[in-house]
């Protein structure tokens, strides 16, 4: 039996999630919600045979009995408004906005610990691309005292909500870096590049420490990359880990599957693939133990 899901947010992220959900054997999209009846996203959903509403959250709440899990691809402010009500209604919410609500999730690191969470926070595209590598660096080099991640994405792949939410993008990415690495001094930067042809998503990760174990770092990063590629085959290290003075550096590039935008939009793929993977894990878990009562799904939000 498939897990019935809804998607709210008809922009790039919502459309890419729809493509992945419809390819999954464990998930079914029963409703696609937006706010503009003429939007390309709602048109795509109609073409794919999915019920749509142009009443946004209002339309979603009018159809609560048609889904069990919601992918939220709206904005940070919108998520903070309607997510608590969805949680109160017993729905699982997968948060693809930069809002701080929910349990911070990188599926390859803590996905199995969050199967009972009511609000699962997928952090940001830069967070999904960088945190597994940053965690590998700190695993191999426990005395790292500063981490910096710089992600570059194409302007075409950065929709209006992404641009509106830049402050929360930085705050949530940095909060997740601290949580997963244990390093308190962190910085996250996002560059939106208007160049044509579109630039591919790239993320540079730097770490400062008095001493580095390069061999252990290479091994830890190789393990992290292998786990990531299970969900995102286009995830590649393009600058091998190396040390200059007290700085450890590496860079990754994410080539997308091209489900909705062209493959340069790896920033869509890295977060939508992670979100879909988590939804599939929830579906498997429910299939093994049956639907969980609402109280069993409760988890305190990470503010």
UniProtKB/TrEMBL annotation:
What are the binding positions for NAD(+) in this chain? Answer: 10-13, 157-165, 267
| Residue ranges of every copy of the Semialdehyde dehydrogenase NAD-binding domain listed in the record | 4-117
List the InterPro entries.
Acetaldehyde_dehydrogenase, Acetylaldehyde_DH_C, NAD(P)-bd_dom_sf, Semialdehyde_DH_NAD-bd
Keyword Metal-binding appears in the UniProt entry: no
GO molecular function annotation? acetaldehyde dehydrogenase (acetylating) activity
For this protein, what reaction is catalysed?
A: acetaldehyde + NAD(+) + CoA = acetyl-CoA + NADH + H(+)
Q: What protein name applies here?
A: Acetaldehyde dehydrogenase
Report the gene name: bphJ
What single Pfam family name could you report for this chain, choosing any that match?
AcetDehyd-dimer
Q: Which residues form the active site?
A: 125 (acyl-thioester intermediate)
Instruction: Extract the SUPFAM superfamilies matched here.
Output: Glyceraldehyde-3-phosphate dehydrogenase-like, C-terminal domain (SSF55347), NAD(P)-binding Rossmann-fold domains (SSF51735)
Family of the protein in this entry: Belongs to the acetaldehyde dehydrogenase family.
Recorded source organism is Phaeobacter piscinae
Instruction: Tell me the superkingdom of the source.
Output: Bacteria
């Amino acid at each position: 039996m498939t897990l019935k899901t809804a998607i709210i947010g008809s922009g790039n992220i919502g459309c890419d999630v729809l493509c992945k959900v419809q390819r999954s054997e464990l998930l079914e999209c029963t409703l696609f919600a937006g706010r503009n009846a003429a939007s390309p996203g709602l048109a795509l959903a109609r073409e794919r045979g999915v019920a749509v509403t142009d009443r946004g959250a209002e339309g979603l709440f009018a159809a609560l009995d048609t889904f069990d899990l919601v992918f939220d691809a709206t904005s940070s402010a919108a998520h903070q408004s309607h997510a608590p009500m969805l949680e109160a209604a017993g729905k699982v919410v997968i948060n693809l906005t930069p809002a701080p609500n929910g349990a911070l999730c990188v599926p390859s690191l803590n996905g199995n610990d969050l199967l009972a969470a009511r609000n699962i926070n997928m952090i940001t595209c830069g967070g999904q691309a960088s945190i597994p590598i940053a965690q590998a660096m700190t695993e191999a080099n426990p005395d790292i005292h500063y981490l910096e991640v710089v992600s570059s994405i194409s302007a075409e792949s950065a929709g209006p909500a992404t641009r509106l939410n830049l402050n929360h993008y930085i705050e949530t990415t940095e909060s997740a870096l601290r949580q997963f690495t244990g390093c308190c001094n962190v910085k996250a930067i996002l560059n939106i590049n208007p160049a044509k042809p579109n630039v591919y998503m790239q993320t540079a990760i730097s770490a400062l420490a008095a001493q580095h174990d390069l061999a252990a770092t290479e091994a830890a990063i190789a393990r992290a990359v292998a786990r990531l590629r299970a969900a995102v085959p286009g995830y590649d290290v393009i600058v091998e880990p190396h040390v200059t003075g007290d700085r450890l550096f590496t860079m990754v590039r994410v080539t997308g599957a091209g489900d909705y935008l062209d493959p340069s939009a790896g920033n869509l793929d890295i977060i939508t693939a992670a979100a879909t993977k988590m939804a599939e894990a929830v579906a498997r878990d429910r299939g093994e133990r049956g639907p969980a009562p609402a109280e069993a799904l409760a988890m305190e939000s990470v503010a």
